Amino acid sequence: MDARLVGISISVKSGEAAYIPLAHNQEEQLMEKLVLKKLKPILESTKIKIIGQNIKFDRNILSRYGIHLNFIE
Description:
This protein is α+β, with helices and mostly antiparallel strands. The protein has helices spanning about 30-45, 55-65, and strands at about 5-15, 15-20.
């Protein structure tokens, strides 16, 4: 598990999504620590169901950044 977080894709509504770039070389980036601090309470909520295509991998990577998914499907 040497993977590094380079961005986060999220969607809260079918047909709509956003990508948050964190560690790309050629684009303007958002501050990783700030983004993760803002997303942490949402991703760790037991009231918000997290669904992902490769969620076990995502869970493992996010845990290395101090985010622990609680309600995944």
